[in-house]
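Retro notes (design track)

What went well: tokenization of the new backbones is finally stable.
What didn't: we kept losing track of which sequence belonged to which structure.
Fix going forward: every design gets posted as structure first, then sequence, in one message. First example under the new rule, 322 residues:
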């Protein structure tokens, strides 16, 4: 049975996995991402690591369908190139596919890292193999991917699924994209802290979170959610505002696409069931009646494995489409 290789390329580490065609992980490992000298060692290190581990496990290129990889930056799927991955120091065009295929003798497929994570959660995670699944990842930014009728949606310029740039507050905070009030400005880890700091200014009740903020202490999104779980009134007001914005975005996504599931992952999703209930309340408020009863909000299940699993599926999907 031929196997798959999945790669999740990140700014601090490169994660690898060898998987069955059914998406079960057989082996996994990682290496540090060497971003020095414009990231020139990243691809050679990936090639060396793959070849080393194939030797280690007694495999050859004939044992594999191919390699799939998720990468930050602007990805050209057809040419297999990446540019503008600033956390990798890749400012110029990187011929990733050409180099990796030459270095491993295996077919290589690549897509954006958020899209690849969506494929992973859709295939083996909370999406349960559904044909219509939207993945929203809440981290330092807000990303996402859309699977509709069984296909990953890319759009004209590859920008489909930029969920973090749905405008939820037209006169809101400035976003790095140049707009104001994007979901990313209020639903990312930094966005939650920004909401807390702003709401704290006018908050007059008793709140331990307010004391932390007023005292200049470091506040994180985790601290905000932990205080909300303990009933802190300011924290509850902050997370309700967060739920409103995320629920508004999810309601609009659900009305347009009517997916089986909107899967929420990333660091902020560690808030767990309280996040599902809070966002679900506003999703129900904004969703069309038939959508409200058919689209579910779920928490991501695969954690750090979503990227390698979704990346590996690129090799299967591409092989099947030939």
């Amino acid at each position: 049975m031929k196997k798959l290789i999945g790669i999740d390329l990140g700014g601090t580490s490169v994660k690898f996995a060898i998987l069955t065609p059914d998406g079960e992980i057989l082996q996994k490992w990682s290496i540090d991402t060497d971003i020095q000298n414009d990231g020139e060692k990243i691809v050679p290190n990936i090639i060396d690591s793959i070849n080393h581990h194939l030797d280690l496990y007694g495999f050859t290129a004939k044992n594999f369908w191919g390699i799939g990889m998720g990468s930050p930056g602007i990805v050209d799927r057809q040419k297999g190139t990446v540019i503008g991955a600033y956390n990798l120091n890749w400012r110029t065009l990187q011929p990733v596919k050409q180099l990796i295929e030459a270095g491993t003798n295996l077919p290589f497929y690549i897509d954006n890292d958020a899209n690849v994570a969506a494929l992973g959660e859709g295939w083996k995670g909370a999406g349960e193999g559904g044909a219509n699944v939207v993945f929203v990842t809440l981290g330092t930014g807000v990303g996402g991917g859309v699977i509709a009728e069984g296909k990953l949606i890319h759009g004209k310029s590859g920008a489909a699924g930029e969920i973090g740039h749905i405008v939820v507050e037209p006169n809101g905070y400035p976003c790095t994209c140049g707009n104001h009030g994007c979901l990313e400005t209020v639903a990312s880890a930094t966005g939650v802290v920004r909401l807390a700091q702003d709401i704290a200014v006018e908050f007059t009740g008793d709140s331990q979170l307010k004391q932390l903020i007023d005292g200049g202490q470091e506040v994180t999104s985790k601290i905000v959610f932990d205080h909300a779980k303990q009933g802190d009134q300011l924290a509850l007001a902050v997370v309700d505002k967060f739920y409103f914005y995320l629920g508004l975005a999810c309601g609009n996504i659900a009305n347009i696409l009517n997916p089986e599931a909107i899967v929420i992952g990333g660091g902020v999703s560690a808030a767990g069931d309280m996040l599902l209930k809070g966002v679900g309340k506003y999703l129900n408020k904004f969703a069309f009646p038939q959508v409200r009863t058919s689209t579910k909000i779920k928490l991501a299940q695969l954690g750090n494995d979503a990227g390698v699993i979704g990346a590996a599926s690129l090799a299967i999907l591409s092989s099947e489409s030939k």
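Added context from the reviewer: The chain has a mean pLDDT of 94.
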